[in-house]
Design brief:
It contains three helices and nine strands, in the order αααβββββββββ. A hairpin with a 2-residue loop joins strand 8 (about 270-275) and strand 9. The mean pLDDT is about 80. The strands form three sheets. Strands 6-3-8-9 form a four-stranded antiparallel beta sheet, with no helix packed on it. The chain has helices spanning about 5-65, 70-90, 95-165; strands at about 170-180, 195-200, 210-220, 230-235, 235-240, 245-250, 255-260, 270-275, 280-290. The protein is of the alpha+beta class.
Length: about 290
């Protein structure tokens, strides 16, 4: 073989070998670059996840620093949105550049919103502190003024209570009679068709004059009220009465008579009569029938 040709072949072979070596080295370098980029993307994704988690915790902390239902509701909504974005990020692959870019943009928005809430809550807390200081000052002044009139209020309350007690009506001479079908006094319970309740409302110059509704309760030996008069208010509840009557009270002694028509079987024993006016029980008495 010609020496020149041999040398040319050797040169070509060396060039090819060099190119192959260069290509191999270049491919290795590119592979390393790709691997480095993937690791960097994964680290970037992990950092984003950590930031989302930190923001979620900050929302929880801020909700404990404020007593405003409207703002707490807003913080809760933003916290849930941040948590949702975090879950989306965890499902995304680190090399999904489009989704990573979107979630990074969302992260910037979350960061900005969180910063605004931090400023807002800080302002509200400062305002609350100022209001508390002003409230303490006003309360101190009010307490001082209240102390000045406390004696007068106590005396006024005492006088009002005495007037109210003095103005309460009183039922005297309470009687309960059995009437038969002819309107005469019955001697036996089996002949009764009607109860007649009579009493006097005593003279009271302190009580106001005017129309009054008198309620009468008749309770049988079992403690049940003989019905027929509806209900009325007494001690924050409605209770049943047997009969009622509207009278005109002038401050002078006023006789009152009411009737209860028998609508149920009666038994022998003690019957209790109670009289009520103006939400007060003004008299009571027990009668025995055979």
């Amino acid at each position: 073989m010609n020496k020149k040709i041999l040398i040319s072949l050797i040169v070509v072979i060396l060039v090819l070998v060099g190119a192959a070596v260069w290509l191999f080295v270049n491919l290795q370098e590119q592979k390393q670059v790709v691997q480095d980029m993937e690791e960097l993307a994964e680290l970037d994704k992990q950092e984003m996840e950590n930031e989302y988690e930190r923001f979620t915790m900050q929302y929880s902390e801020m909700k404990t620093q404020i007593n405003n239902d409207s703002i707490i509701a807003q913080l809760t909504a933003e916290q849930m949105r941040t948590q949702q974005l975090l879950e989306e990020l965890k499902q995304v692959k680190a090399n999904d550049a489009r989704e990573i870019a979107r979630l990074k943009k969302e992260l910037a928005t979350v960061r900005a919103v969180l910063r605004d809430y931090v400023y807002q809550i800080d302002s509200l807390n400062r305002l609350n502190q100022n209001l508390m200081a002003e409230n303490s000052r006003v309360n101190a002044e009010l307490n001082e003024r209240n102390a000045e009139v406390a004696g007068l209020n106590s005396e006024k309350a005492s006088l009002s209570q005495k007037v109210a007690i003095a103005a309460q009506l009183d039922a005297t001479g309470i009687s309960l009679q059995m009437l038969n079908k002819r309107g005469k006094v019955a001697k036996k319970l089996k002949d009764l068709t009607q109860f007649k309740v009579s009493f006097n409302i005593a003279k009271n110059v302190t009580a106001s004059n005017g129309s009054r509704t008198v309620y009468v309760r008749i309770q049988n030996p079992g403690g049940n009220t003989l019905s027929g008069g509806g209900t009325f208010a007494y001690e924050n509840r409605n209770i049943e009465c047997s009969a009622k009557k509207v009278i005109e009270y002038t401050g002078e002694e006023t006789p009152v008579t009411v009737f209860w028509n028998m609508t149920q079987m009666l038994e022998a024993g003690d019957y209790r009569v109670s009289i009520f006016v103006d939400g007060n029980m003004i008299g009571t008495k027990t009668f025995s029938f055979k």
